[in-house]
Amino acid sequence: MTDRTSIRKGKLLGIQLLFAAIMAGTQGTPAAQESFPDMPTYNIFAEEELQRDFLRIEYKEPLDRPELGFLLLVPKAWEEVPLTISREHLEHDDDNMISLALLRSPEREAQIEIAYIRVPPTVALEKWARAYLEGNNLEILHFQTGAFSGRQVFDALLNAQGEYTVRMTISRHGDKIYIVSGSAPASRYEKYMKVFGLAVVSLRKL
Predict the structure, then answer these.
(1) Could you report the per-residue pLDDT of 145-160, keeping only the tens digit for each?
(2) How confident is the model over 61-99, as pLDDT tens digits?
């Protein structure tokens, strides 16, 4: 189940807290500085821009499983792409990355994907992340670690095959690891990097 809601003051319970988290970016001080200019993290958009141009979208029961629910902020103009996941694939979520949502820009040149995989809690987040990136031939341009919206993350900018640039943010939630990926052609990445930054910072489990 998906709930797309325009962001208005007082519209939703806790929305002011969500705004505060987005405006701050991560759990840093107001004076915190970006580690990398191509990975926007702090004060990405003004509040009036958030209200005018973005939606708070909630996936309450992705794949009919409420324990996988999450929310994030995305541009109003972006479209959701229907996903089909086989039962066999879903039953082996400890071996397969399972896509939960895919959103695409109107120009169809950029996208945001949210996916998860079940991983033993004893596996360290950064160790798993580096092994996953290496196994998928994703070259790390630079990375940062920290806390986004209260969750520990491994946040990396990557070179991908086909001359794509990807911002991938990996976080653990119990026995599951969630990945938020914003990707665009390398030559167009700068156009979308703030949208990707907002998506990775705003993700929250329901």
Answers:
(1) 988 878 899 999 999 9
(2) 999 899 999 999 999 999 999 998 888 888 999 999 999
**CB hemisphere CA count around 81 (13 angstroms):** 15
CB half-sphere exposure, 93, CA atoms < 13 A? 19
Q: Quick check: 123 and 176 in contact, CB under 8 A?
A: no
- Structural domains in the chain, sorted by start: 2-205 (3.40.1000.10)
169 and 14 in contact (C-beta within 8 Å)?
no
Strand pairing category for 139-148 and 111-118 = unpaired
Spell 22-59 as b/e; 16+ CB within 10 A means b. bbbbbeeeeeeeeeeeebbbbebbeeeebbeebbbbbb
Residue 99 neighbours by CB under 8 Å, 6+ apart:
83, 85, 113, 114, 115
Q: How many residues does the chain have?
A: 206
At residue 3, φ and ψ (nearest 5 deg) are -125, 110
The residue type found at 159 is N
Question: What's the rounded mean pLDDT across residues 168-184?
Answer: 96
pLDDT > 90 fraction of the chain, expressed in percent and rounded = 71
Confidence bin at 180 (pLDDT 50/70/90): very high
